[in-house]
């Protein structure tokens, strides 16, 4: 920068003018640095760091227990059919999620103090039982066999459902005041969980078992600390909101695809000696997912429809097509896992948004997310293992990849693609979201052209004709023509009347929070 201002002086510019420009530029850079430092200090508080670390441990727990493509055959008792251990733990998680969902939607619930005591007791009892099951073979090594292994899988699933739901309720309460922080925390924690994934694989089994047990035991105290630190309140009681069909179908297709790819990749690594190291390396998909999520949410500022159905599902389909066309099971699983984790992150953020907008949804929406995805994942694993689809790997990958693309296309172009949650952008501030959402709905209802929609949004933000012309790089006469068409479609005569119409729609959107449709 100093060289630039020296060049200006050498070309005869006034010395005082150049000095003023240099002072302003330097001051602007320093001010930006101060703002960045202040923002970093605001985010790097102890509760924020603790929350991010606990969420990273949570992703690691899910990976170790439910998602890693390891071949762990389970024989519940001598002579019983051998099934994948992941299948049992996922089914247990689905049953636990259903129980929590039914309780949250139908029962009034216990007082907060009794509910916390029950949660503490469940975590402690589960930890003690897991240790006892592990030492039945005479050694604490993280390895289980036979009936103790079956019981441990059931316990992991039940604890997984409990932890999943409680984490969701915490983020639902936190999202009311700090929605964008919740989005950033979800993305950052996924990256932070990668070293834990690798350590859980390459270190001894007792390390993996100890970390999981410590996470379960410390989960409740840390959650209570975070609730006090963030001054969170319990969510209001549910008003019996209907179960969203499109949301449930999305979870079913998502979990089924991951389960099938997980089963195919597990069979691939088990059949070829020396390929076991590909299992932990596939967790690099978490990093790909977090980078993709950051770019799509905070850079491209996509809405939920595009995030889930135009990025997440096609990315999962890419994994299946890589296997079908290129025959690379590792990269296929890597892309599919990245697409799944990306979509799960987006669904987490969507659930937080719905919990903020709809009273009482935070009590059960994460239980729904947990039970449906785990059931669908178990179903996918069961299909690959039980029907022996490994022999038809390429054909299966083509069918599943095409189904994912077709479902994404149908969901994003269904009869009501501009649902309230569908056009919400998680990377934007609340007010910007409401204004853009109102303009989007009006543009759809009045059949605005794409260019009219751009002009309309700028006019609603208060820009005059000259400013719109400069922003869109078109002539003022062109803007005038678009304004005339917009005014005619809206039945208004001035820009102020247009702004009043948009503000009325914004007010309507704010008031319909309790009537938000899925």
TrEMBL record:
Mind listing the UniProt keywords for this protein, alphabetically? DNA-binding, Membrane, Transcription, Transcription regulation, Transmembrane, Transmembrane helix
Q: Lineage, please?
A: Bacteria, Bacillati, Actinomycetota, Coriobacteriia, Eggerthellales
Q: Does the keyword Transmembrane helix apply?
A: yes
The alphabetized list of GO BP terms reads: regulation of DNA-templated transcription
Q: Is Transmembrane helix found in the keyword set?
A: yes
Q: What is the recorded name of this protein?
A: HTH luxR-type domain-containing protein
Identify the residues that the record assigns to the HTH luxR-type domain, covering every copy: 441-506
Task: Give the matching InterPro entries.
Answer: Sig_transdc_resp-reg_C-effctor, Tscrpt_reg_LuxR_C, WH-like_DNA-bd_sf
Q: Which residues cross the membrane?
A: 40-62, 82-102, 114-133, 145-167, 179-204, 210-226, 247-272, 278-300, 307-331, 337-356, 363-384, 396-413
Which molecular function terms from Gene Ontology are attached?
DNA binding
Q: Which domain of life is it from?
A: Bacteria
Q: Which Pfam families match?
A: GerE
């Amino acid at each position: 920068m100093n060289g630039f201002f020296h060049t200006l002086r050498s070309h005869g510019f006034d010395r005082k003018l150049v000095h003023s420009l240099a002072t302003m530029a330097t001051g602007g850079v320093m001010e930006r640095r101060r703002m960045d430092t202040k923002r970093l200090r605001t985010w790097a508080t102890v509760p924020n760091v603790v929350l991010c670390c606990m969420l990273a441990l949570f992703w690691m727990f899910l990976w170790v227990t439910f998602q890693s493509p390891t071949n762990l055959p389970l024989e519940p008792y001598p002579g019983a059919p051998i099934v994948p251990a992941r299948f049992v733990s996922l089914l247990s998680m689905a049953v636990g999620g259903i129980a929590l969902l039914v309780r949250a939607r139908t029962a009034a619930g216990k007082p907060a103090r009794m509910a916390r005591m029950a949660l503490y007791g469940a975590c402690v009892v589960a930890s003690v039982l897991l240790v006892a099951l592990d030492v039945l073979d005479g050694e604490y090594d993280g390895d289980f066999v036979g009936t103790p292994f079956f019981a441990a899988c059931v316990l992991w699933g039940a604890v997984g459902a409990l932890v999943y739901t409680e984490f969701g309720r915490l983020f639902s309460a936190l999202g009311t005041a700090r929605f964008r922080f919740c989005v950033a925390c979800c993305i950052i924690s996924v990256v932070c969980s990668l070293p834990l994934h690798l350590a859980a694989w390459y270190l001894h089994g007792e390390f993996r078992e100890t970390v999981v047990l410590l996470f379960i035991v410390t989960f409740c105290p840390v959650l209570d600390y975070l609730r006090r630190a963030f001054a969170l309140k319990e969510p209001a009681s549910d008003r019996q909101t209907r179960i969203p069909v499109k949301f449930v179908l999305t979870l079913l297709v998502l979990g089924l695809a991951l389960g099938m790819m997980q089963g195919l990749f597990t069979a691939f690594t088990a059949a070829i000696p020396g390929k076991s190291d590909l299992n932990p390396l596939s967790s690099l998909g978490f990093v790909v997912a977090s980078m993709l999520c950051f770019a799509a949410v905070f850079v491209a500022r996509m809405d939920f429809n595009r995030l889930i159905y135009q990025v997440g599902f096609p990315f999962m389909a890419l994994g299946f097509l890589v296997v079908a066309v290129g025959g690379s099971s590792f990269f296929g699983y890597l892309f599919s896992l990245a697409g799944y984790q990306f979509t799960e992150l987006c669904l987490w953020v969507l659930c937080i948004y719905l919990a903020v907008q709809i009273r009482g949804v935070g009590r059960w929406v994460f239980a729904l997310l947990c039970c449906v995805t785990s059931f669908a994942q178990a179903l996918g694993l069961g299909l690959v293992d039980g029907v022996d689809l490994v022999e038809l790997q390429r054909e299966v990958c083509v069918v599943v990849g095409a189904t994912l693309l077709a479902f994404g296309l149908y969901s994003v172009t269904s009869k009501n693609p501009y649902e309230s949650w569908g056009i919400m952008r998680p990377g934007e501030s609340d007010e910007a979201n409401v204004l853009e959402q109102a303009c989007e709905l009006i543009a759809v209802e009045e059949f605005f052209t794409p260019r009219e929609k751009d002009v309309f949004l700028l006019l609603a933000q208060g820009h005059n004709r000259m400013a719109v012309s400069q922003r869109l790089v078109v002539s003022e006469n062109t803007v005038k023509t678009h304004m005339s068409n917009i005014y005619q479609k809206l039945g208004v005569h001035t820009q102020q009347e247009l702004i009043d119409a948009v503000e009325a729609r914004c007010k309507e959107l704010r008031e319909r929070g309790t009537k938000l449709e899925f």
